[in-house]
């Protein structure tokens, strides 16, 4: 039986097209003609031996085989890029100071640091998982090289808007019964200590909807907030990123609560041009964040 060897260049086009939601955009991003990209996708289906695309309205969607192919394509490309970085940048050295929001501390940080450390073992990394206001203060004062923070419309000298993430009401895994506002009792709200962007968004949305609320639990840490929410002390507002197993997003219309806006995500840099180690870690961080946003619907 002849062994199938997938073309990494074709897989990169495939992955890029799915990420951008449009293969014409992928052609522009990769510097290819649309006909060349179409030929690559035809080649990929031939190699797969099964359709990987299906018609969906005026566009295309992935078949089950296409979803499977996408997962493997990302893994192959990740390993390829990691190998290339390790071989071509063996002597990359230095010190990188990275700051992240708590939401990304347990999900994004281990994956990013693991990949980076394997490729660049001589680079030392100092990572801080802190609140938004401290992240911005530290990157503007030069105490951090990179900071991944929620957007409160504050811009630093060298920042890049990554995307938007939907905010949602979060409750215990077993859900809640009834609708808030119907009985007249204030809705119990669990929140991080002020200042908190999501707490502000929650109270503003409730006030605009005419729903009374009370602060039932206030925590200085995300771990405490998850524990209170899982215990049913109150509902909270976060994004779908990094949710622990004992809590889940709630459909606002089912519990009588207003829909919430999206929250911007920004990567702040201390300098316009970072040292090679910082630039490489920033690129890897962006790649992982984009994957997380796709999973969260951002």
Q: By CATH's scheme, which homologous superfamily of the largest domain applies?
A: Periplasmic binding protein-like II
CATH architecture of the largest domain: 3-Layer(aba) Sandwich
Question: How would you spell out the order of helices and strands?
Answer: HHHEEHEHHEHEEEEHEHEEHEH
How many domains? The number is 3
Overall 3D form: globular
Strand proportion? 15-25%
Rg from alpha-carbon coordinates: 22 Å
Please identify the top-level CATH class of the largest domain: Alpha Beta
Question: Strand order, biggest sheet?
Answer: 4-3-5-12-6
Low-pLDDT segments? none
Q: Could you name the CATH topology of the largest domain?
A: D-Maltodextrin-Binding Protein, domain 2
Relative helix content: 40-55%
InterPro entries: LTTR, LysR_HTH_N, LysR_subst-bd, WH-like_DNA-bd_sf, WH_DNA-bd_sf
GO molecular function: DNA binding; DNA-binding transcription factor activity
Organism: Rhizobium aethiopicum
Family: Belongs to the LysR transcriptional regulatory family.
Q: SSE layout and pairings?
A:
Elements: H1 8-20, H2 23-30, H3 34-48, E1 53-56, E2 59-62, H4 64-88, E3 94-100, H5 102-105, H6 108-119, E4 123-129, H7 132-140, E5 146-150, E6 158-166, E7 168-172, E8 187-192, H8 197-209, E9 213-219, H9 222-230, E10 236-238, E11 247-250, H10 252-255, E12 262-269, H11 276-296
Parallel strand pairs: 3-4, 3-5, 8-9
Antiparallel strand pairs: 1-2, 5-12, 6-12, 7-10, 7-11
Helix pairs in contact: 1-2, 1-3, 1-4, 2-3, 4-6, 6-11
């Amino acid at each position: 039986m002849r062994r199938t060897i997938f073309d990494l260049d074709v897989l990169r086009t495939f992955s890029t097209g799915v990420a951008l939601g449009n293969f014409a955009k992928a052609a522009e991003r990769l510097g290819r003609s649309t006909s060349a990209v179409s030929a690559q996708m035809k080649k990929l289906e031939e190699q797969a031996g099964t359709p990987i695309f299906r018609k969906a309205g005026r566009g295309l969607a992935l078949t089950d085989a296409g979803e499977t192919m996408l997962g493997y394509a990302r893994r192959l490309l990740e390993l390829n890029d990691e190998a290339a970085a390790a071989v071509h940048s063996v002597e990359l050295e230095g010190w990188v100071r990275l700051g992240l929001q708590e939401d990304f501390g347990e999900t994004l940080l281990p994956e990013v640091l693991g990949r980076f450390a394997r490729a660049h073992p001589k680079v030392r990394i100092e990572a801080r998982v802190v609140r938004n206001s401290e992240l911005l203060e530290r990157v503007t004062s030069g105490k951090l090289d990179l900071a991944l923070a929620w957007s409160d419309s504050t811009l630093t000298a060298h920042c890049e808007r990554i995307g938007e993430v939907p905010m949602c009401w979060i409750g215990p895994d077993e859900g809640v019964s009834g609708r808030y506002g119907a009985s007249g009792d204030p809705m119990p709200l669990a929140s991080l200590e002020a200042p908190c962007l999501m707490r502000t968004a929650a109270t503003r949305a409730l006030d605009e909807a005419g729903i009374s609320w009370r602060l039932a639990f206030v925590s200085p840490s995300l771990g405490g907030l998850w524990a209170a929410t899982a215990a049913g002390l109150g509902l909270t507002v976060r994004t779908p990123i990094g949710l622990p197993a004992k809590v889940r997003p709630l459909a606002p219309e089912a519990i009588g609560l207003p829909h919430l806006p999206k929250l911007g995500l920004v990567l702040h840099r201390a300098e316009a041009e970072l040292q090679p180690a910082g630039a490489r870690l920033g690129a890897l961080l962006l790649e992982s964040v984009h994957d997380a946003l796709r999973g969260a619907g951002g």
